[in-house]
Amino acid sequence: MKALIPAAGLGTRFLPVTSVIPKEMLPIGSRPALELIVDEARSAGATEIVIIISEGKELIRRYFAGQDDVKFVYQHGQKGLGHAVLQASGRFGDEQLLILLGDALVTGCNASKSMAEVSAANSGCSVIGCERVPRERVSRYGIMKPSSGAEIAAGNAFALFDIVEKPPVEEAPSDLAVAGRYLLDSRIFAYLADQAAGVGGEIQLTDAMRVLAKEQGMVGREFTGTRYDMGNKFGILQAIVQVALQHPEVKDQFRDYLKQVAENL
Length: 265
Ligand code: UTP
Known about the structure:
Elements (H helix, E strand, L loop, with lengths): L1 E5 L20 E2 L2 E2 H11 L5 E5 L4 H7 L5 E5 L6 H6 L10 E4 L3 E4 L3 H11 L4 E7 L9 E5 L10 E9 L10 E9 L3 H11 L6 H12 L1 E5 L3 E4 L3 H14 L4 H13 L2
Parallel strand pairs: 1-4, 1-6, 4-5, 8-12
Antiparallel strand pairs: 2-3, 6-11, 7-13, 8-11, 9-10, 10-12
Helix pairs in contact: 5-6
Bound molecules: uridine 5'-triphosphate (UTP).
């Protein structure tokens, strides 16, 4: 298995800091979020990690210089996530492809590892990582449509029938949202290339995954940990607090500080 981390986006929701520091490099304690994501890929068994960057995000390249299992591919012109993934197709053969979004940090479990285990137990099938979201927020996410109409028990893997992009609450097929981790068959590149040939606009990873699910079947797997969206201000602040609460050097001091803050609210 090889991993791919798209980190070429513009990060407009986090301006002005992203005009000089990529959002993926914002510090969580003394390490950039992206390094925690690279670590997740490594401990899940990825032998090579390809990071997609763009001009202006060379800080990422400088930071990982010397880590021989980390490689870089440029995306010229930000035409969306699917386009970013497609740029790296030449780097991958027919091995499984683990995609980790560069701005989605998962703490409390190794999401990629648990997906790799589900795949290994199901003849190497493709697996999409997901998280449960409150019903009233389903319209912000890609929502999983399980094959069976039955309720999915927490943490269980399930056969996936389809993914519905940002459904209205009353039409949502579940409360399980696509959460920035995908373990996919290498055929995903062919499906992305088909879209690239057809349209001039954004190339959608979700559309290519829907084809893959129809052709080969796919499994969904709910994480046991928590995902933080590093693309928005609240997400990164939450991640900093969570990581601080587990940090061996500062956790006790930080917990006392938080209690003090809460008392004074
Ligand atoms: P986002 O959807 O958050 O887009 O990307 P963005 O452009 O980075 O951020 P905003 O919306 O302007 O604030 C999710 C992940 O996919 C990467 C991003 O770097 C991020 O890690 N991405 C997105 C690319 O690599 N290329 C793209 O064209 C778009």
